[in-house]
Amino acid sequence: MRTFVAIAGALALLPLARGAARAQAAPERNGGFSVFEASIPEMQAALKEGRVTSHELVQQYLTRIGLYEDKLNAAITVNPNALKEADELDRERAQGRIRGPLHGIPIALKDNILTADLPTTGGALAFDGFVPPYDATLVKNLRDAGAIIIAKTGMTELANWVASGMPGNYNAEKGYGMNPYDPRRDPRPATFDGRPVMQTGGSSSGIGTAANFWAGNVGTETSGSILSPSNQNMLVGIKPTVGRISRWGVIPITADQDTPGPMTKFVADAAILLGAMEGAAPDPHDSATTRCTPPPGRDYTKFLDPNGLKGARIGIPRAYYYEATPVPGSDRPRGGLNPAQARVMQEAIAILREQGAIIVDPADIPSVVAKDSTNNLLLWNPCSGLDDAKGKDDDCSVVLKYGMKRDFNAFLQSLGAGAPVKSLTELREWNKAHEKAGAIKYGQAQLDISDEMDVEKDRARYEADRAKDIRLAGTNGIDAVMKAKRLDALLFPGPSGAGIAARPGYPTVVVPFGMIPNEPFSRPGAPPSNPFPPGFDPKPQPFGVSFTGMACSEPTLIRLAYAFEQATKRRTPPPGLR
Predict the structure, then answer these.
(1) How many CA atoms lie within 13 A of 151 on its CB side?
(2) For the segment 2-56, what is each residue's pLDDT rounded down to a tens digit?
(3) Are the C-beta atoms of 105 and 55 separated by less than 8 Å?
């Protein structure tokens, strides 16, 4: 039941002979333009100067997909009409018509974003081959800006709200996505089920962008699913303020936290993609799009200032995010960095100082260090898994499991009569009936605890939990420390701030920076849990830095992230995929 038809159709067009592969490996030597590690501005300059066509860009990317897709599993569907669409955009360019900043640039979409001309599955077998009746609003915006939708990427099934033990980037449609920085399977007996030895991050696959299969991709985040895969694949990721980008036409978990966002190799590319995704006016299908006002012309490139760190006040939330911190009622501290992560962050902070930033250290988050358990964020987590089913969920937030029941059913109604299933209940029943076909290899505990919610009867509990989420993560969390310390941003290690920023819907930009050992986590002084077998050499994994701010602060965060990127330029492509 896997969606191979579109991939087969596209790959049939590819020149996969050895000579073609050699030409792709080093096109510069042949006088041509190479898509390898090329930025969107570089592509646009080459297109404008006639050094390359959109057809040639797509062909190079398709060739790379043909060469490496079997190793990486980056795509669920490849657009069989990508070359035809490129030809049309080349004709428009020749006639002097440029649609926008992405004219002729190949972009991939997470496969939970509806495309009326390509299947959208969310990675779920129940949606296998399903072609939606409409484009997501962000897809229309991208097409209006000239983008070519070259592929739909792999993802964790239904954005990782199916099973509590499902590995990242696994779905029943295509299996496991592999991290291009070490595309081997995990050899350890306890986890020897086909999963990658190096995690790929959250549910939005950054694999293909890291491997230069397309110029960038659009992910979606509820809590970490843009920031984590960007971090793990050495990419820039922008998790926007919830509502800046329309969610209409995106398979939801909860409208309270869901947002699409760009994942690219460079900050400038992410800024361009963000502006192209954003609507010029609020989307009538998504009331949250009134929250932030776009910059003039939706042009975020004006914030790309290499000197943007000078005078910026950047806070270091030491407690929990950098150093282990006590929690009420426990004698064991939580959080903290391992030595390799700590060294990376120490270097990053030193560079920020060198670039003229004012480092406010510590800038601890009040709700993280609160001594009252009812006001401590670390003791208030989202309900997840069967241990947090109804009757066992007094000490966790029901926002995600409630929102999934409410918003997924509403989404299915928008699909009309052609919807593969008509309700969350029907999806769960379909999955159980097709379990032998691999529909729920890891079970469906998250769907189960969502479906037991009653949207009407449980509304008061949901509203109380939603208010507590915002109070602990926003009002007495990020807002409190940023206002008290007069900060421009908080600096989090890797994607570690994703959870706190997710609840009030605040933005974050993650930037590639360091490499750390891929080693099993263990408490200080304890032997590694689930160690690698003797003789197995795990490769180093990426580890970036994140700039987080309050609602609608993307311009500031982009300025800081770009200045940091230009001062460091630490992104390196995956080895062995040249």
Answers:
(1) 35
(2) 443 344 444 444 433 333 333 333 344 335 899 999 999 999 999 999 999 999 9
(3) no
Catalytic residue among 34, 54, 164, 203: 203
Read off the amino acid at residue 478: I
Q: Residue 578 and residue 565: Cα distance in Å, rounded?
A: 23
Does 553 qualify as catalytic in the annotation? no
Distance in angstroms (rounded) separating the CA atoms of residues 40 and 490: 28
Write down the domain spans for the chain. Answer: 5-16+39-234+241-299
The separation between the first and the last C-alpha atoms of the chain, rounded to the nearest angstrom, is 32
CATH number of 5-16+39-234+241-299: 3.90.1300.10
Beta bridge partners of 250: 113
CA angle 518, 235, 508 (to 5 degrees): 105
Residue 303 · residue 555 · CB < 8 Å = yes
Say which of 34, 110, 246, 401 is annotated catalytic.
110
At 221, list the tokens. Answer: 């985040």
Q: List pLDDT tens digits, range 540-564.
A: 999 999 999 999 999 999 999 999 9
Place of tokens 């985040």: 221
Using alpha carbons, select from 517, 412, 403 the residue that is nearest to residue 453.
403
> What is the mean pLDDT of the segment spanning 224-249?
98
Asked if residue 212 lies in contact with residue 36, where contact means CB atoms within 8 angstroms, the answer is yes
Are 199 and 168 in contact, with CB atoms under 8 Å apart?
yes
Q: Are 154 and 111 in contact (CB under 8 A)?
A: yes
| Pairing outcome for strands 508-516 and 541-548 | antiparallel
Query: For the chain, what is the mean pLDDT?
Result: 94
Amino acid at 17: A
Q: What is the DSSP letter of 166?
A: P
Establish whether 330 is a catalytic residue: no
Q: Report the 10 Å Cβ neighbour count for 190.
A: 9
Structure tokens at 169: 């980037």
